[in-house]
Design brief:
There is one protein chain. The protein is an all-alpha fold and 113 residues long.
């Protein structure tokens, strides 16, 4: 994600935003599109495994988010993809465990009046 750290002229001169003279916006759109496709495939694989095993395992963040989605319907596939994208960023190296606990806390707080 070197593109994110590059200075972009369009950030300083708003008239250049539509032109995208450095092509950063175009490249970032492609990178994020590929990333969302990857998350989409991971979610599809997980849904297929769930369908074949007929179980609801809670092994990782995607499973927990899919469980929340099935139970409450308050989040959908788009939400899951975006949480997978942003989830690991602010957390320390024990990301999977920390993010799982974070999501469980959010889920439980939604059910407390």
């Amino acid at each position: 994600m070197v593109e994110v750290g590059k200075p972009n002229l369009a950030d300083y001169f708003s008239i250049l935003a539509k032109i995208d003279p450095q092509g950063i916006r175009h490249r970032l759109t492609n990178h994020f599109g590929e990333t969302f496709e990857l998350f989409g495939r991971l979610i599809d694989e997980r849904l297929e495994l769930r369908r074949l095993r007929k179980s609801r395992a809670e092994n990782d963040v995607i499973d927990i988010l899919l469980n929340i989605s099935e139970e409450t319907g308050e989040i959908n596939r788009t939400h899951i993809e975006h949480l997978c994208l942003v989830g690991p960023l602010p957390f320390p190296p024990s990301t999977n465990s920390t993010l799982s606990h974070f999501i469980l806390a959010i889920h439980q707080s939604m059910h407390i009046p």
